[in-house]
Amino acid sequence: MDVRQAITDRIIAMLEKGGNVFRARWTQAASRGMPRNGKTGQPYHGANVLVLWDAAIEQGYASNVWLTYRQAASLGAQVRKGERAVLCAHFERRGGRGAAGDTADARGDDDGAQDETTAPRGALLCIPFWLFNVAQIDGLPGEVIEAASESPGSSYPPVERALRLLAGCNATIRHGFERAMYLPDLDEIRLPWPKRFTSGEAYCATALHELVHDAGPRVMPRSLAVALGRPLPWLGIIRAPGGTQVACRQ
Predict the structure, then answer these.
(1) How far is Cα 15 from Cα 1, in angstroms, rounded to an integer?
(2) N or C terminus: fewer CB in 10 A for the chain?
(3) Could you tell me the pTM of the whole model?
(4) What stretch of H or E contains 19?
(5) How do the domains of the chain map onto residue ranges?
(6) Per residue in 82-123, pLDDT tens?
(7) Which DSSP string corresponds to 36-86?
C-alpha cells in the first residue's frame, strides 16, 4: 500500500469539494478540538489531523476521540461489525526515534507496524495505522466516554480563546485591508475587517496563521541567514501551517 498517495488522494478529494465547503467542514470539525487518542489522551499531528477532522464531519461523529482496534479490545470494548477505519500515517526512521507524526501512544502500540528489514538503517519509513471513532465502538469504559464528551482544553469557547491569544501576543495587527498578510519590513499583520470572514472561526484561523509569520523572525534560527548574508522570509512561510495547528491547539 502506498500510504502517502492514499492520504494525499484523500486531502485532494477534500479540496475538490470547493473552497466554501472545505473551509466550513474544517471549521466545524476544528471547533471540537484537536483529534486525540481515547486511551492515552495524546493528540494526533500533521496530515492525520486533517484526515480525522474530515472523517468526523463526513460520518457525523460528535467527538474527535479515536482508538485503534487493539486499544478498544484492551479496554474490553468492541468495534461494531461493518465499521470502517480511517487510514492514518506515522513517519519514523528505521533504527531511530520517530521523525515526525504520531507517537506509539497515539498510534496504539504496534497497530499497523510494517516489516522494516528491507529498509536501510536511517531510512524514513511511512507506517500506516487505522483508527476508529469512539462512536463506532461498543462497551467502552465510562471514563473514555466521559473524556470523549468533554470540551477540550479550556472553559472558554474556541473563538474567545483565540481572541485572547491574539490580544496577548504583542503583535501589531491592523484591520481594513483587502487581503490578509504579514509585512516583515513593517513588522505588522494586516487583515480584512472581521465581518468580511465567513465566521469567527475563519477570522481567528487566518489571524493565527499570520501570527506565525509574525513570530518567524523572533523564533527562527538566524544562523543560516547570517551565513548567507540575507534574510530568509521563506522559513516563516514553510512553518506557518504547522505553527497554526499548534496555536489552534492551545
Answers:
(1) 23
(2) N
(3) 0.61
(4) helix 19-30
(5) 3-149, 158-249
(6) 999 999 998 887 765 544 556 666 666 545 544 444 666 667
(7) EETTT-PBP-THHHHHHHHHHHHHT-S--EEE-HHHHHHTT-EEPTT--PE
